């Protein structure tokens, strides 16, 4: 929404959220205090805020005034009832639809921006059309393809913008055109795709499933590389140069994280199962099984390498975010690796340049594996990599922050217990130079 406001100064954009703390942070006088760390975002907000970009908790007023409403609320995996652990929980979407239906007094275009199961628009339409107040709604699907850490870049220069609508009717086509006109302020027209609503909804789940599947595919081969003397980076490079395969999303890692890959694949699996397509469901579920295996394998290797016990040993974690350049930790591999090692009674000291101590403890507490007191006893969060690594038995790199490449690894080595173990879960460190310093070096896939 900030980028739309920046690129379309004549359009008023109001972002509303029921979370008062978040809205207060978006309105913070110091634009560096906005609640999301994302390169370039604070500058975009600074340019548009209070000009044509507003943040508010007054949801009703914003609905009343709007011609277009983007529903962008969370769609987490269900934690209860039918579809528990698989299906998307659509209660927040439904609440929005009911609120729009209650408040709207004139015709509106309602846009699904959240990632939704295919055919959700049908349910939205049913809620919106059955209010009896004569207001007409057009429902569009406009999934978001930005990745965190590069969000602003991705929004300014997207590979494509996808808009699904009721393209068989004039009203539907008019609504699609209205949204095309917004993006056309900065996105070339041939990169704005229009489809029917169902294709648009399903394309979003499919895109995430394909991306995650590539990571799981290369991660599955990283294990084979470790057994055979092949190097997964070399394999990635060799296959990625085949233009039919392409080079992106072939970086082997400790496992993918983030709020969406797992949730969206589980959702796809659930939809396939609900249509009785068991082979389709099993095919995609394997992407998650492989990812869980990769995280566990990384943690197991630490225990095995440290002479089969980490009990009472200090392990330094460099990085907690699910990828670099974000403070988002949702489903981060680091959380699961930490949980595994804590079960083995390790003591973990964590440094991440952007993630707060409060967030790290919240992530561990959320798992419910042990008491809050125990998490605070076994896990410490520090402000510098040196504080994390001093006196450690092992260092594990869990996020690929650029600054970890530039650390003074000689100094770190000197202050660690010997033998000093270094586990690179992100393949950002060079083996030769680290072994020359004296580290026992372990990297995924070679
Ligand atoms: N985070 C990302 O990079 C991407 C997210 N998506 C999709 O976008 C959706 C949102 O994701 P996030 O922004 O990461 O989730 P989030 O959980 O960070 O934000 C959702 C916000 O919606 C607010 N909310 C919930 N119910 C509300 C209501 N009735 N009225 C007003 N506000 C309400 C919550 O307070 C929260 O601040 C999901 O469906 C996700 O799959 C899609 C592409 C990228
Ligand atoms: O729907 C969403 O939320 C978004 O999900 C992903 O974006 P995001 O999760 O923000 O970040 P990615 O760059 O896709 O990384 C996801 C995870 O995969 C890992 N990854 C990625 C690429 C790779 O080669 N190897 C690898 O391990 C990353 O470290 C990270 O943990 C998609 O890339 C976006 O297109 C999509 O809009």
Automatic annotation (TrEMBL):
GO terms for biological process: glycosaminoglycan biosynthetic process; UDP-glucuronate biosynthetic process. It comes from the Bacteria. It catalyses: UDP-alpha-D-glucose + 2 NAD(+) + H2O = UDP-alpha-D-glucuronate + 2 NADH + 3 H(+). Pfam families: UDPG_MGDP_dh, UDPG_MGDP_dh_C, UDPG_MGDP_dh_N. Pathway: Nucleotide-sugar biosynthesis; UDP-alpha-D-glucuronate biosynthesis; UDP-alpha-D-glucuronate from UDP-alpha-D-glucose: step 1/1. Keywords: NAD, Oxidoreductase. Its EC number is 1.1.1.22. Gene3D superfamilies: Cytochrome c1, transmembrane anchor, C-terminal (1.20.5.100), NAD(P)-binding Rossmann-like Domain (3.40.50.720). GO terms for molecular function: NAD binding; UDP-glucose 6-dehydrogenase activity. Catalyzes the conversion of UDP-glucose into UDP-glucuronate, one of the precursors of teichuronic acid. Belongs to the UDP-glucose/GDP-mannose dehydrogenase family. This is UDP-glucose 6-dehydrogenase.
């Amino acid at each position: 929404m900030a980028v739309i406001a920046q690129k379309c100064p004549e359009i008023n954009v109001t972002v509303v959220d029921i979370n008062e703390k978040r809205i207060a942070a978006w309105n913070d006088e110091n634009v560096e205090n906005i609640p999301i760390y994302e390169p370039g975002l604070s500058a975009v907000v600074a340019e548009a805020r209070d000009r044509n970009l507003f943040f508010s908790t007054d949801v009703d007023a914003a609905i009343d005034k709007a011609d277009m409403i983007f529903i962008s609320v969370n769609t987490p995996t269900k934690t209860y009832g039918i579809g528990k652990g698989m299906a998307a929980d659509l209660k927040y979407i439904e609440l929005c639809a009911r609120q729009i239906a209650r408040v709207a007094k004139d015709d509106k275009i309602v846009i699904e921006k959240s990632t939704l199961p295919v055919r959700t628009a049908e349910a939205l339409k049913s809620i919106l059309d059955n209010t009896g107040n004569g207001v007409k709604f057009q429902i569009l699907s406009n999934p978001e393809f930005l990745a965190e850490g590069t969000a602003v870049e991705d929004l300014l220069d997207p590979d494509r913008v996808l808009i699904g609508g009721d393209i068989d009717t004039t009203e539907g086509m008019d609504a699609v055109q209205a949204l095309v006109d917004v993006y056309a302020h900065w996105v070339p027209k041939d990169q704005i795709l229009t489809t029917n609503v169902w294709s648009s909804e399903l394309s979003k789940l499919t895109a995430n499933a394909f991306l995650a599947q590539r990571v799981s595919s290369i991660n599955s081969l990283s294990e084979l590389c470790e057994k055979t003397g092949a190097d997964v980076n070399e394999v990635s490079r060799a296959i990625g140069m085949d233009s039919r395969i392409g080079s992106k999303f072939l970086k082997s890692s400790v496992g993918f994280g983030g709020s969406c890959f797992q949730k969206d694949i589980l959702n796809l699996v659930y939809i396939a199962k609900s249509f009785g397509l068991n082979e389709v469901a099993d095919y995609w579920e394997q992407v998650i099984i492989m990812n869980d295996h990769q995280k566990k394998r990384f943690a197991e290797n630490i225990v095995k390498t440290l002479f089969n016990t980490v009990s009472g040993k200090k392990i330094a974690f460099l990085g907690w975010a699910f990828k670099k350049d974000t403070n988002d930790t949702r489903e981060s591999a680091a959380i699961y690796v930490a949980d595994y090692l804590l079960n083995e009674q390790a003591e973990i000291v964590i440094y991440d340049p952007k993630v707060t101590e409060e967030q790290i403890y919240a992530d561990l507490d959320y798992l419910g594996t042990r008491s809050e007191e125990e998490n605070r006893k076994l896990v410490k969060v520090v402000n510098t990599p040196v504080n994390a690594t001093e006196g450690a038995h092992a260092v594990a790199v869990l996020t690929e922050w650029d600054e970890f490449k530039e650390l003074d690894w000689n100094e770190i080595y000197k202050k660690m217990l010997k033998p000093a173990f270094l586990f690179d879960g992100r393949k950002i460190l060079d083996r030769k130079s680290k072994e020359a310093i004296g580290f026992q070096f372990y990297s995924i896939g070679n």
